[in-house]
């Protein structure tokens, strides 16, 4: 049988064509070895025309955040290592679609800030905060103020907050410092005083309307003390409207001032007189004797 197949001059089979890439591949030549080695890196699909016709990523992210914010509100206690470890498996970079690494950058009290970094393009993408930042400069974590307010509502202070956050109980970060705690306490006191004055002013107007008189209303009085017994150094007197049953006015009587008590040295002489002249406008002591006397 006649063989119609032509034999090749070399007598060998032709070599297969090597894949030279396409428009989605990028050539890079490395000169580490003697022979130049060609590597192919896949380009981002963001360069294609079809991708550019899709809605922008910012639009998609904004819509997702809007949907999430409607379903998830308030605070949660989570295991940060477990949660972030699982989250890293499902998130990717918006530019190169590489893996995202989430690291804790800093912490302020019970609040933390996290940094999202792409393992492929090595660029810092975004800084995330674990809670809302409030204040005029948007630099105060809200959770720190809430924690201090929670302790004040149950009659406790910074020591109880430290005990609550210890590793053996709740394993939370160390709460705010003493300086920050005092600053938050002052802010809470100012806000409470403003709200109390507004509430008592509205109650007084309501009492005048219900009583039907112009300058004379019937009230009842009540009092309480900071500690049990009639030897407390701080007492509170309240006036209650007879018709509306709401507090119309309060007066705090104190026979103790912490700043005066902390003065070191004899409480007489020119040095003490200078101290009193500066401290007198801010002194908390406005009564002598037991609060029961009032």
TrEMBL record:
Basic residues composition-biased segments: 1-26
Superkingdom of origin: Eukaryota
InterPro entries linked to this entry: Mutator_transp_dom
Domain Mutator-like transposase intervals: 97-290
Disordered, as annotated region: 1-49
Protein name, per record: Mutator-like transposase domain-containing protein
Native source species: Trichonephila clavipes (Golden silk orbweaver)
């Amino acid at each position: 049988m006649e063989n119609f197949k032509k034999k090749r001059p070399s007598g060998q089979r032709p070599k297969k064509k090597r894949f030279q890439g396409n428009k989605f591949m990028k050539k890079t030549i490395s000169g580490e070895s003697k022979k130049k080695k060609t590597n192919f890196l896949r380009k981002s699909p963001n360069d294609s025309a079809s991708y550019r016709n899709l809605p922008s990523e910012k639009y998609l992210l904004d819509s997702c955040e809007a949907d999430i914010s409607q379903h998830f509100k308030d605070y949660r206690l989570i295991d940060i290592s477990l949660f972030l470890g699982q989250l890293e498996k499902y998130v990717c970079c918006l530019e190169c679609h590489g893996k995202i690494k989430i690291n804790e950058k800093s912490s302020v009290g019970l609040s933390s800030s996290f940094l999202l970094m792409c393992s492929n393009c090595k660029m810092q993408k975004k800084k995330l905060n674990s809670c809302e930042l409030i204040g005029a400069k948007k630099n105060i974590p809200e959770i720190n103020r809430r924690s201090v307010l929670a302790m004040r509502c149950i009659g406790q202070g910074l020591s109880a907050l430290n005990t609550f956050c210890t590793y053996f109980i709740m394993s939370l970060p160390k709460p705010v410092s003493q300086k920050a705690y005092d600053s938050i306490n002052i802010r809470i006191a100012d806000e409470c005083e403003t709200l109390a004055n507004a509430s008592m002013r509205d109650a007084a107007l309501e009492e005048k309307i219900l009583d039907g008189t112009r300058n004379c209303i019937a009230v009842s009085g009540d009092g309480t003390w900071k500690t049990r017994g009639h030897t407390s150094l701080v007492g509170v007197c309240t006036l209650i409207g007879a018709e509306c049953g709401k507090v119309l006015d309060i007066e705090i009587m104190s026979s103790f001032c912490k700043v005066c008590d902390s003065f070191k040295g004899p409480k007489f002489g020119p040095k003490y007189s200078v101290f009193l002249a500066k401290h007198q406008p801010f002194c908390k002591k406005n009564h002598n004797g037991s609060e029961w006397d009032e």
